[in-house]
User: Fold this.
Amino acid sequence: MIELNVSQELATKAAAAAKDKGIDLPEWMKRQLANQVHVELLGQMSLALAERFGDEVWEICERVSTDIGRELAPAVRALLDLDPDDARSLTKAVDLTNLMLDISGEEVVFERGQVVRHERDCLLSKRLVEIGCPQYCSGMFQPMYRGLLKTLNAKADANDPPFLKSKGDDYCEVITMVKE
Assistant:
């Protein structure tokens, strides 16, 4: 199981060390820079590997991402106090990801057992379109979310997004479902 180690003490020490070195950036800027480097690293590396080794790379990315979601599930459930039988509660995992990646959108449909979200603002999507890597979202993040959901509740699932900003669409459509 992956542990989510959140430490204010460690963050305070890191901020002080950065300031001592003359790197005094606001937290939002550090987060955005980390996210952009993350996209470049995973996006360009996976594209280069797929070019060299073929589509099997995307299958591996999806499998590993699903496994990571499964491993994260207990820690995320505890951190966010998720109710695995409630689709809206499960979408808190999307909310957390959105906060970390500076993504925003809205819930457009809520029905018993289903929440549909349209994520419209994403700092990273423009770059993913530029490098041609929609798989970053569809083949890594969405499988991770699905692995998390299925681990928390075998009747829970997420869609294969028909719309992705990383493909140039106006929004990403994320559907969280809990079957009865």
The helical segments are 8-20, 27-53, 56-80, 87-90, 92-101, 125-131, 135-152. The first helix runs from residue 8 to 20.
